[in-house]
Design goal:
The chain is α/β, with parallel strands linked by helices. The chain has one domain: Rossmann fold (3-Layer(aba) Sandwich). 35% of the residues lie in helices and 12% in strands. It contains eight helices and seven strands. It has a seven-stranded parallel sheet, with helices on both faces. The radius of gyration is 18 Å and the shape is globular.
Length: 299
């Protein structure tokens, strides 16, 4: 992997090496610690400017991938950060919690399963008890499992994908809004799949389209409260979602190389979009979706 400098002008086509994975799969939910090649979350490269100083953030799926990179970026911008993750992702979570604390801010670990409505309410309450408020909510945790045959998509699998990606977002947001002051920001993780759905990702793509609609509707309903709601729609980003059955083995071997930029993105390249939407720099932006897609543009 080439060295990434967020402030140095570089050729984006060669800023990172192409991912040439061997196609081996991990069991869900997948660990960043076991990924080959490793993903870049900005541990060695992200330099904050104090844009989120004193703010309190809750990030679901903050142990790896885009959530992890966002947690590191938020911490280095001065925010206290709570991350929610599955208990089996503890190894990844401990790494990110240490990165948050090294930035000189508070961290909060919230292990559990967001498919449970009671747990969704619990993580909001624990964050408020620890930090005093929630100024930034990032609904990022997601379930993605490739299945090309419609007949093999079970009702249980379909429901699990919606409970993780959509229902949990609804439960957490509903619980968090009463604790969010004017100026707060909600950022949801959508996907290029909401606009350009792939065969084999029927349930996942459907949830991401729902997240786009949820984001735009909620933004309009919360505007008078001074709470902004936006989404980020990543394209092919190298995260544990991909090798933990999010893609078939043959697609992993040349993952993301069909984009105009010729390579997949790294989590460190997505996190700045979340920082921008969380900061006051985006004060007149709400009900929008920012694509980070390597050229597979949104409509």
């Amino acid at each position: 992997m080439t060295q990434y400098d967020q402030y140095a002008m570089q050729d984006p086509t060669t800023q990172y090496l192409k991912v040439n994975a061997d196609g081996s799969l991990q069991p869900e939910p997948g660990l960043d610690a076991d990924m080959r090649p490793k993903a870049d979350h900005g541990e060695e490269t992200y330099r904050g400017l104090g844009r989120l100083k004193g703010r309190k953030a809750l990030i679901t799926g903050g142990d790896s991938g885009i959530g992890a990179a966002t947690a590191i970026a938020f911490a280095r911008e001065g925010a206290d950060v709570a991350i929610c993750y599955m208990p089996e992702e503890k190894e990844d979570a401990e790494h990110i919690l240490a990165e948050i604390e090294q930035a000189g801010v508070k961290s909060l670990a919230l292990p559990g399963d967001i498919k449970d409505e009671a747990f969704c309410k619990e993580i909001v309450q624990k964050t408020v008890e620890a930090f005093g408020s929630i100024d930034i909510l990032v609904n990022n945790a997601g379930k993605q499992e490739f299945e090309a045959d419609l007949q093999k998509i079970t009702t249980e699998k379909f429901e699990d994908t919606f409970r993780t990606n959509v229902f949990a977002m609804f439960w957490i947001t509903k619980a968090a809004v009463p604790h969010m002051p004017a100026g707060a920001s909600i950022i949801n993780t959508a996907s290029i799949q909401a606009y350009q759905p792939s065969p084999g990702l029927l349930d996942y793509a459907s949830t991401k389209a729902a997240i786009v609609a949820f984001t735009k509707s909620l933004a309009k309903s919360l505007a008078q409260k001074g709470i902004r709601v936006n989404a980020v729609a990543p394209g092919p980003i190298w995260t544990p979602l991909q090798p933990s059955h999010g893609q078939p083995p043959e697609k992993l071997q040349e993952f993301g190389q069909n984009t105009p930029l010729g390579r997949p993105g790294q989590p460190a390249e997505v996190a700045p979009a979340y920082v921008f939407l969380a900061s006051q720099e985006s004060s007149y932006i709400t009900a929008e979706v920012i694509g980070v897609t390597g050229g597979q543009h949104l409509p």
